[in-house]
Structures are given as structure tokens and as C-alpha cells.
Design a protein that fits this description.
By secondary structure, the chain is an alpha/beta fold. It has ten helices and twelve strands. It has one domain: Aldolase class I (TIM Barrel). Helix 1 packs parallel to helix 2 and helix 1 packs across helix 9.
Length: 337
């Protein structure tokens, strides 16, 4: 009796020999928050809606990259749930042959309303931005007074039964220190992995300075005083976070040291902006115009050629710590979180 074997997945490599398996897709640059590390407080200029790739165009890109070896997708924004009928897109992407996982990053404000329909469409994992549990600190960093709505959305997502829910908190000096233990306590009690992300130079106001970054080793020191931990070996080879498990066996946390100890050597992702520009690095100033090809009648082979050409010159690293570092011209909300 013969055992049916699964077809071998193609392997997609960049110019540095890194295997690329992950495409992050921004579906909108719009957001209902105005986080200080991402967007200006007001007078934000958003893309005209006709410039955004349609669901059919997004699905076509995914069909191309899936045949090349990408099998993990993450929907981002802005706030992706501001894109109308998002569960429809999730279902379309899940139906693409070769795609094994569709996840989303969200601020959770709209999750209470949409969690069930997203899960029913096939969304399996959520990363939720939550920088502070304290009501005043939340309002300060997000410029919105709605922490309870966010917590309600997270609770609904948990009850719906997503495969994974992670809490992402941007770590900023003189702000996050008092929130870290509270967030860890929340994650441990609710069964979520909390991940702390060093503040990166992607704010629209361009006020980022290295002195404003709360570094990974400092975060670990704060947590260790209450919750002893041990590192999980080789976690960077799986994702961007250095992971630590609690010695009492109650969960784990992640630290994304994008500034102090970048994970660029293990980078396995590329990005596409909501207006169809391929970016091979979050901090890149090079964009490759997939939308122009798609709307100009290009074939799938033409799209694949552009993607492969971009990957050949994918950056070795982001250069934040080097003298010739140049900030991306787009802020985080316009790139895709």
C-alpha cells in the first residue's frame, strides 16, 4: 500500500541565501489610532482608495508568490479592519494553493465585532498592538481613550478560539518601564505571549532618537525581577523575537531587538504596501511597483521576474546602527506594520 506524499514546496532564496517564506500585505494605510511611534496627531494624508490593490489583485500576487515558495501571509495596515469586507479577502487568500497560514496584526478596536467572521474565513493567528494597560498611558501613546474597547476585543478573540494571540508592545524609555510587568502579568493570566518591540525610527513626526529606545536587555532585567525566565534556544531562526520561557512553566515572552541586536541574518519576509509596492526590508527606500505591472496587463511570469529581481538585492540589514542609515520616507502606517 503506497503512502501518498505531499508535493515538495519550492524554496525561495534572496541574494544572501536566506529562505523567504513570509509575505506581509498591507491592506490600508488608514488607522483609527494616532500612535506616537507611527503617525502624526492630525492632518494625515491617506492614499486615494483607487490606488489600493483590490482583493482580486492582492490574491493574484499571492497566487504568484505561493508558487515561488511563500506559504505564510500576514495582513497589516494601518488598521486592517478599516478595509471593508476583510473576511472576504481572508477567505480568498486561504483558498490559494500552497498558502498554509494567514495571520493579521490589529489594534483590536474592531475585533469584538469581527473576530468570529475572521475566524470563520480562515484567519488563524492574531498579533495585537497594546503598549499600555494603564488608561492614561494608553491614551497618551495611542492618542485615543479606548483601552477597554481594545481589551474587550482581545477577550472576544480569545473566546472565538484563534490558534495564537500575541500582544505586541513598543518599548519606549521613560514610558514603558512601569507597564512591562503589568503586561507580562496580563499575558500570563490570559494565556497570551507578550512581545516587546524596541522603538524604531518609523514615526511620522521623525522625532525618534536612540536615547528614546528601551533596549531588550533592560526589558529582560525588569521582567526577571518578578518572573524568572530562561532563553529558548534558536528562537530567532523561527521568527523575529528572541523568546524566553518562564521557569514556573506558565508561558513565554518575546523580545524583538530591532535596534540593539537586529535579526536581519534570519529575515524570512518581504512586504507589499497597500498601493502595491514590494519592499524587501521594513527600512528600505527601494520599492518595486507590482501594481504598475498588474494594471498594465503584465503576465504572472512578469510579476515573478520582478519579485525575483527584487530579492536578489534584498538588503543584508537595515543599517540603523550605521552612520549611513537613512530613514524610510514612508512612516510605519504607510508601509505596513
Amino acid at each position: 500500500m503506497s503512502v501518498e506524499t505531499k508535493p515538495q514546496r519550492p524554496i525561495l532564496k534572496d541574494g544572501m541565501g536566506r529562505t523567504i517564506v513570509n509575505l506581509r500585505i498591507s491592506v490600508t494605510d488608514r488607522c483609527n489610532f494616532r500612535c506616537t511611534y507611527c503617525m502624526p496627531a492630525d492632518n494625515v494624508e491617506f492614499m486615494d482608495r483607487e490606488k489600493l490593490l483590490s482583493f482580486e489583485e492582492l490574491t493574484r500576487v499571492v497566487q504568484v508568490v505561493a508558487k515561488m515558495g511563500i506559504y505564510r501571509l500576514r495582513l497589516t495596515g494601518g488598521e486592517p479592519l478599516l478595509r471593508k469586507d476583510l473576511p472576504t479577502l481572508v477567505k480568498m487568500l486561504k483558498g490559494v494553493e500552497g498558502i498554509e497560514d494567514v495571520a493579521m496584526t490589529t489594534n483590536a478596536f474592531f475585533l469584538k465585532e469581527h473576530a468570529q467572521s475572521l475566524a470563520d474565513a480562515g484567519l488563524s493567528r492574531l498579533n495585537i498592538s497594546l503598549d499600555a494597560l494603564d488608561k492614561e498611558k494608553f491614551a497618551h501613546v495611542n492618542r485615543r481613550d479606548c483601552v477597554q474597547q481594545v481589551l474587550d476585543g482581545i477577550a472576544t478573540a480569545r473566546d472565538v478560539g484563534f490558534k495564537s494571540i500575541k500582544i505586541n508592545a513598543v518599548a519606549m524609555r521613560d514610558f514603558s518601564e512601569s507597564e512591562i510587568v503589568q503586561l507580562v502579568d496580563y499575558g500570563r493570566s490570559e494565556g497570551f505571549e507578550v512581545r516587546f518591540i524596541e522603538f524604531m525610527p518609523l514615526d511620522a513626526d521623525k522625532t525618534w532618537e536612540r536615547d528614546k529606545v528601551l533596549f531588550g536587555h533592560e526589558i529582560i532585567d525588569i521582567i526577571q525581577k518578578k518572573f524568572p525566565m530562561e532563553p529558548i534556544q534558536d528562537s530567532l531562526e523561527i521568527g523575529p523575537a528572541s523568546e524566553y520561557r518562564f521557569k514556573d512553566g506558565k508561558g513565554k515572552i518575546g523580545i524583538i531587538t530591532a535596534v540593539s541586536n537586529p535579526f536581519c541574518d534570519y529575515c524570512n519576509r518581504i512586504r507589499m504596501t497597500a498601493d502595491g509596492k514590494l519592499r524587501t526590508c521594513l527600512f528600505s527606500n527601494n520599492e518595486h511597483n507590482l501594481k504598475e505591472l498588474i494594471r498594465g496587463g503584465a503576465s504572472d511570469a512578469d510579476l515573478e521576474q520582478l519579485i525575483r529581481s527584487a530579492l536578489v538585492i534584498k538588503e543584508p540589514g537595515h543599517k540603523i546602527n550605521l552612520d549611513d542609515f537613512k530613514r524610510p520616507e514612508r512612516a510605519m502606517h504607510a508601509i505596513g506594520g
